[in-house]
Amino acid sequence: METAEADVETVVDELTLEEKIQLVHGAVDPDGTATGYLPGVDRLGIPEFRLADGPLGVRVNGSPATLFPASIALAATFDPNLAREQGAAMGREANARDQDALLGPGLNLIRVPHCGRNFEYYSEDPVLTAAFAGAAVEGIQSADVIATPKHYVANNQETHRASVNVSVSERALRECYLPGFKAAVDAGAGSVMTAYNCVNDSFMSENRPLVTDVLKGEWGFDGYVVSDWFGAVSTVESANGGLDLEMPGVTRDELWEMFDLEPPEDDDDAVFGETADVSDGMPDMTNTGNFGGPLREAVERGDVPHARLDDMVTRILRQMERIGVLGGGRAASPPEDDGHRELAETIAARGTVLLENDGTLPLADDADVAVIGPGVEEISTGGGSSEMDALHEAPTATGIDARATGSVTVERGVPPIEKVSFFGGDDEGDDQRPDPTLDDAVSAAADTDVAVVVVEDAAAEAVDRDDLTLPGGQDELVEDVAAVNDNTVVVVQSSGPVELPWRDDVSAVLESWYPGQADGDALAAVLFGDADPSGRLPVTFANEEDYPVTDDATFPGIDGEVQYDENLLVGYRYFDATEADPVYPFGYGLSYAAFEYRGAELVDERRVEVTVENVSDRAGREVVQAYVRPSNASDDRPVSELGGFEAVSIPAGETVTVDVDIDDLAFTEYDETAGWTALEGPFTIEIGRSARDVEFELTL
Ligand code: NOJ
């Protein structure tokens, strides 16, 4: 390690000022494959460096890759090992496509239930988020590709994301919004991407307290800090604040070229694809090149110290050295791996949450099924920079048709839901089929054993959903189908919480998020019982008015400023404090199996041992959860917090003992003068199946 550091130092010493500048801002990728590109310095053996989006798979122009389920679906597995495996698979695919850094994982906390990018994030809970963030980073970097946790920090809404000032307490930052990033850094992340927004009056690209003092100083992060695209708002302030790399560093027109896209003819606000009306959430794309000529001049003037520029370059070269590209010694991954296809399906099935079931699920193999919904002939994913070309596509209806032995009929019921796409054009015009009708859907449903209605929202980067209702008349579609078929199963493909007003009138409800390329195969496995839908909700599902962001000051903000008034009470913590009933609580999810909790005991101060029996005649997966409730906490603390969790497969009729580690975060609080302090005990440790379903209580 020391030799590596010395090597980097030697190279930095030999670089000219011009070459150093070339290494800290992006340029046009001559191959046109990457999202961000550095040209390298040939004479010193510094290679080109390519950065690719993330976080649901690797987007490389012209080279499809595995499209994994949305990150929120991954988090719904409550199994960070799967994040490690998915990370490693994405890392290998990035490496095989000659990419050096992956722009993920996305790990902002889910604060606003209808935030457009919730599908790219993990959870409303910091402990769950941190566990997934750390595992994803380890996985990606195991393939010699740099992970880029993003967007640091408090990018919790897309409305005005490029300008909004987030007013948030230091305490909420430390206890809620930062732990995911800290875990990513502790796991060895080589890079961190700054958010577009301001936090407490300073843009994140130039936020010295959070970037230099906390991230690099307190946490000891020795990688590079990269701006979000067109998010380096200044030269001197950003460089001196701690930003190391400006991306993409090129002009808007060069970007069109790089992504091989046609510039829109007359719409200055349009960003990428023609369907994208996301101007409100986009950065100023004319403000670019701040770390090019302007940085060189600032260094020459002495406004940015030479030592700072050397540090910027050192941080980037250190990561090149680490993955073996600075000497040309990185081992190449194979171009494709069939295991990745299977993994994408396993995660999609395991992340599917069974919200309701009157016994209709799982279906008999020979059930006749009508598959109904506007998007059943496609795979489901979100819009924005995470869009990519999938290697294999299993559309919803195709997967069900392949698995069913009875008859399968397909009806769309309502017109396609309008989606925002950054890259895809609007190909609706090519559809020659007659418009779908509710009547056709209802007749198909009336005529079959089971109606599977697949409903979806439309979420994308740069724009928040309007509300939590399903668009395009889909509630009516469900109600009309349920009125004629007593075995109506609704599958929800959404980016986060949605309202399900008909949930008591149908036989079963599954939340399968955006399942990615394995969509239909994973859904068929769940519907027919080949896989247990073992997901649990990583976010609270509730009526919109019960969330803590219902007035303009808390979302989307007034006069450019948003107040995080709920402070520590993000997600389920707010529902506990207000005693409002969620529709489905955090951590909730059913199973085809049935579990009984037989005992729980404390092994030590940070670990409990829980005994669970699968009392059914089928194998299933249970997620044991431990919540910590301090007895003497101040009034503004959460009533209880998730401390730890463990997902476990339990064969039919068997009993297992599960160890659950409890995170220190649940036993400490951040005081703005004293720093981290221990909370006073005694603590009640609640062992249960969700934030609202406690099976055992222990005292610590
Ligand atoms: C903007 C997005 O916010 C970020 O997540 C992404 O990595 C970059 N664009 C590059 O596409």
- What does the radius of gyration come to? 25 Å
Strand content: 15-25%
Provide a count of the helices: 18
Which residue ranges are poorly predicted, with pLDDT under 50 across at least 5 consecutive positions? none
As for the CATH topology of the largest domain, it is TIM Barrel
The pLDDT mean sits at: 94
Shape: globular
Query: Which architecture of the largest domain would the CATH scheme give at its second level?
Result: Alpha-Beta Barrel
| Ligand inventory | 1-deoxynojirimycin
Which structural category fits the helices and strands?
Answer: alpha/beta
Distance between the termini: 42 Å
Can you tell me the number of structural domains? 3
Oligomer: single chain
Largest sheet: 6 strands, mixed
Order of adjacent strands in the largest pleated sheet: 10-15-14-13-11-12
CATH class of the largest domain: Alpha Beta
CATH homologous superfamily title of the largest domain: Glycoside hydrolase, family 3, N-terminal domain
Number of beta strands: 25
